[in-house]
User: Which sequence fits this backbone?
């Protein structure tokens, strides 16, 4: 029988209410960029945000190391939409991403934009016409990227 070894009390109880996700963000594990997305949530007034955190962020969609990585991300996107009726999706890549092992910024941006297209074409996203944004985050800014 499992036993509680330690308990940390929350300052305030969590809400049990169901919610509609203002957004789903797919981002890299790199915690140096965590605050950027907090700033994004604040700037765009996103209250309920589902998050998929994987090393390399968008890379897992357009240039995955294993095919199953991409399938996993798509299954999570589908669940966010099904469970939380997600209103919009952000896909993130960032400067100096270790998952890229020193690849040039052009490669990172190319993969990011391809990931955006792939998510836009993903049936659960396309059917509901959910907007998808590609974000490139550097050490000073969050940049909404598009072709040309
Ligand atoms: Zn990274």
Assistant:
């Amino acid at each position: 029988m499992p036993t509680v070894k330690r308990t940390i009390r929350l300052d305030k109880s969590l809400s049990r209410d169901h919610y509609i996700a203002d957004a789903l963000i797919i981002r890299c594990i790199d915690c140096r960029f965590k605050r950027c997305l907090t700033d994004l949530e604040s700037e765009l007034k996103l209250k309920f945000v589902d998050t998929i955190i994987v090393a390399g962020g968008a890379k897992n969609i357009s240039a995955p190391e294993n095919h199953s990585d991409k399938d996993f991300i798509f299954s999570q996107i589908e669940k966010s939409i099904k469970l939380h009726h997600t209103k919009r999706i952000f896909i993130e890549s960032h400067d100096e991403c270790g998952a890229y092992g020193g690849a040039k910024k052009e490669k990172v941006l190319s993969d990011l934009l391809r990931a955006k297209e792939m998510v836009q074409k993903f049936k659960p996203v396309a059917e509901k016409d959910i907007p998808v944004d590609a974000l490139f985050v550097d050490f000073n800014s969050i940049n909404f990227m598009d072709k040309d």
